[in-house]
Amino acid sequence: MKNFSAVILAAGAGIRMKSSLPKVMHKLSGKPLIKWVVDSVSILKPDNIIVVLGCGSEIVEKYLSGVSGNIKFVYQKEQLGTAHAVMQTEKVLKDYVGGVLVISGDVPLIKSSTLASLIKSNKKTASAVTVLSAKVENSFGYGRIVKNNGFLEKIVEEKDASVAEKQIKEINSGIYCFDKNLWKTLSKVKPNNAKKEYYITDTVAILRGFGKKISLIAVKDENEVKGINNRAELAQAELILKDKKIKELLDTGISVIDANNAHISYDARIGRGTVIYPGVFIDTGVSIGKSCTVKGASYIANSKIGDDSIILYSYIDGAIIDKKVKIGPFSHIRPGSVLGNNVKIGNFSETKKAVISKNSKVNHLSYIGDAHVGEDVNIGAGTITCNYDGINKHRTIIGSKSFVGSNVNFVAPVKIGQGALIAAGSTVTRDVPSGKLVIARAKQEIKRRIKL
Ligand code: UD1
Ligand code: MG
After folding, report:
1. Ligand whose nearest atom lies closest to the CA of 23
2. What is the pLDDT of residue 304?
3. pLDDT above 90 coverage of the chain, percent
4. Please, what are the averages of pLDDT over each run of 10 residues along the chain (452 residues)?
5. At a CB cut-off of 8 Å and minimum separation 6, what does 276 contact?
6. Alpha-carbon distance 371 to 408, whole Å?
7. What Rg value do the Cα atoms of the chain yield, rounded?
8. pLDDT (tens digit, 9 = 90+) per residue, 10-65?
9. 254 pocket-lining for ligand 1 (C-beta < 6 Å)
10. Ligand 1 atom 13, closest CA
């Protein structure tokens, strides 16, 4: 969508967050508020995206420069209000002839399609401004849409509203599309209000005074325009996102046993027939296949899990897990773990940067790190790869069809051939050829007992 530029306001301190972090850097489902807005806007491919920075500008600019390439930054040294913030972008947009979308950096749930409708509508109706509004149950804290004979007259902020105006349930979303009259209008805004700030909302009445056309469109879903000003609103937005996600999943054949007691990130991909039990936390970057079971207090992030797998009370981050894998209860699958088809990782076992190939088992109390385990390997209880010498990490390689008895230490670097048998209690310090039996433990001695 061409012919518009976006101005995102993100200079405010966000005092109501009670935090040293700039408000727009607070995360909603793992993603900073500002990035949600940037993402929604970017989909529409505007001619310019300008972010107005102020409080904590270094933090926001560093973050945004790292994740999006084409953002222009302007700075509002003193936070004198939303109109003053937009004024700072005049030097970039003065000669720009398209629409100017102004949006706060604290409305993360806004949809691109809603923004597109707003921009199109402003152009189609040849309005100087179109305000996006919403009818809400609780309008407290928002600017109210004041109408006269059904037409938008002005916007009044909570602190400046009369008792009657406070009753109004239609609110200003903080999202507007302006035409080129914006700049001359901004110069007319005065800080005549309770906060002594320059309010962008005052442009509405000013434009009307100029005899310009001002328009209003209301969004259907009030959740889209929820502004995040404090942690309660942030928590509420988390719930909105989660509930929406769970509804979508339920509709596509996924069971969530207790929707109030499971967290599923907005970006999770889950296959049909999978059952999510109470207590599960699915963080960002997760895909789970069909007909899986995820049960107990399991945490999963940045991982891919294949069909028919079972995860019980486990912590999984940064793993690629094939089909029919069983993990847990109480396993820790760390980054770089690659688990093949039908692998079993059991209670109190940990894997890290480890390939465990198909049909292999690490059933009890083991640590397998910096390792490659072949197919059909049985790792006995309490087996440890001693991968760290205090300075460097070293690899352990265990060939297919090997059998590792209980309580074995592999002092890496070490390589075990195929079909080897490692006796229980061995501390293996040297490579073992294929098909051999190794016993690396002190011999048992039986001595006469000295009676006391
Ligand atoms: C604003 C609107 C209100 C609307 C609500 C919707 C005004 C005066 N009020 O109120 O009508 O209902 O959003 O969520 O615009 N900012 C700057 N520089 C400043 C001040 C603010 O960049 O000097 C930025 C903030 O970082 C924020 C955005 O502008 O991203 C909105 O400011 P905020 O303080 O959240 O305004 P609200 O009180 O929510
Ligand atoms: Mg706000």
Report:
1. 1
2. 98
3. 98
4. 90 93 96 97 97 96 93 97 98 94 98 98 97 96 95 96 97 97 96 96 97 97 96 97 97 97 97 98 98 98 98 98 98 98 98 98 98 98 98 98 98 98 98 98 94 84
5. 249, 254, 255, 256, 257, 262, 264, 270, 282, 294
6. 14
7. 30
8. 999 899 999 999 999 999 999 999 999 999 999 999 999 999 999 999 999 999 99
9. no
10. 174
Ligand lying nearest the CA atom of residue 13: 1
Position 1 scores a pLDDT of 61
CA of 173 to the centre of ligand 2 (A): 9
**C-alpha to C-alpha distance for 439 and 198, rounded to whole angstroms:** 81
Domain range annotation of the chain: 4-225, 231-438
93 close to 161: Cβ distance less than 8 angstroms? no
Q: Is 364 among the catalytic positions?
A: yes
The residue whose CA has the least distance to atom 37 of ligand 1 is 142
Within 8 A by CB and 6+ apart from 163, the residues are: none
User: Ligand 1 within 6 A of 227 CB?
Assistant: yes
**C-beta of residue 201 within 8 angstroms of C-beta of residue 157:** yes
Probe target for ligand 1 pocket from 74, 82, 84, 186, with the most ligand atoms within 8 Å of CB = 82
Q: Find the catalytic residue in 26, 263, 332, 364.
A: 364
User: From 3.40.630.30, 3.40.50.2000, 1.10.10.1800, 2.160.10.10, which CATH number describes the 231-438 domain?
Assistant: 2.160.10.10
Residue nearest to atom 31 of ligand 1 (CA): 104
Ligand number with the minimum distance to the CA of 57: 1
Residues 210-236 have pLDDT tens digits of 999 999 999 999 999 999 999 999 999
Q: Within 13 Å and on the Cβ side, how many CA atoms surround 111?
A: 10
**Distance from residue 74's CA to the centre of ligand 2 (Å):** 19
Q: Which fold has domain 4-225?
A: Spore Coat Polysaccharide Biosynthesis Protein SpsA; Chain A (3.90.550)
Question: What's the pTM?
Answer: 0.91
